[in-house]
Design a protein that fits this description.
6 strands; about 50% helix; elongated
Amino acid sequence: MRLSWFGKVFWARLSLATLILAVLLGLAVWGVREDVQRYAATALPLSEPLCITMERGTRLGDVLDDLAVPLALSDSRFDLDRLRWRVLARMDANAGRLRAGEYRLEPGLTPTGLLHMLASGQGIQHKVTLVEGMTLEQVRDELAQHPALAQEGFALRAQDLMEALGDKSAIAEGFFMPETYVFSRGDTDLNVLKRAHEAMQQTLAQLWAERDPELPLQNPQQALILASIVEKETGIAAERGKIAGVFINRLRKGMKLQTDPTVIYGLGHAFDGNLRRRDLERDTPWNTYTRIGLPPTPIALPSKAALQAVLHPEKTTALYFVADGRGGHVFSDTLDAHNRAVRRYISGQH
């Protein structure tokens, strides 16, 4: 079908109008893009550092709401134009994926820099330290007191806690590596405990594979239990190997370990700081004065050094030790020699 002269003119004008409209639209888009890019390179009017916290699920609009008040207090006329921010986020897809955390905004930061910071997840880092010798109760208290940690595991029973950590077959006491752990605000106590548990699993497995031959220990868990006792028995690193050697000797001979820290652990909150003879005679699963062998669980977090001492104990003939009053111990091969050392300690003749 051939177009009439009128039809040709109509379609020609329509094509020209479409072209003009496309050019105008392109210019408008280019203009908007240029405007947004200039805006994105303009420093936020911050005269001092500003900390903001983003919870999970926080949107860009929520961030702008948090910035509105401090920026309004500045002398600048900086406009938190939400349309520009949305366009900027769309122009850079990575910058639009905001991650929870606590962030420190420094003077000179631009909108582009802020969006990239919030998308990186690299905010302010917090620390918590699990100290060797801590009990599980003390570990959980330490985590509960940190204001930047969300609490998910504090109220769980020990067995439920380990199930939540994905290792329901493991005991909870002592099975966390004492180290300093770094995390972001809003992270959970369970995440920190999971990292500490996995670190202990890896360390214990490696050291167990490299252990001395013919130790009277049947599995890694027994090594963990004995290491926790060694950890509580001395604060002098140089003595760990010899104390471990004494306990290994006693286990080989079928002797009771007779170590006070296990008795104290078994007493729990009933222990008032003063260990009495009746406490030593009170039977609990952890009383190594009344029971032969290792207690059923660790009594604290053992350090890597304590584990190494147990799995590579010092060669010694000693079967006894007693405090020397100066932070260390006197080691003895026989009960008579040990009793003399005890009497010297009691009488103050160290």
